[in-house]
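The methods section describes the discrete structure representation at length, but only in general terms. Each protein is reduced to its one-letter sequence and a matching series of backbone shape codes. I believe one specimen quoted in the main text would settle the matter. An entry of this sort, consisting of the sequence and the corresponding backbone structure tokens, reads as follows.
***
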Amino acid sequence: VGYCEFPENVYGGEVTFIPKVGESSGSSSSFAEDHGYLLTFVTDESSQQSSLAIIDAESMKLFSLLPTPQR
């Protein structure tokens, strides 16, 4: 079990798992069950800015934090 730590005052919500491109998520796949990305919307309470967080599911490291145009 792992976790991804967001910057101070940034809080996330429910996550969605997305398999890596071109790879099956079916039971016959030879890839590990965490071979993909986790997506969640996060909010920076200090600036009131919302972003889409993309997390590598294998390493649980923040891959990208994409600001949304409006909250």
User: Anything to note?
Assistant: The beta strands are 10-12, 16-19, 36-44, 49-56, 62-67. The chain has a mean pLDDT of 86. DSSP finds no helices and five strands in the chain. The two ends are 31 Å apart (CA to CA).
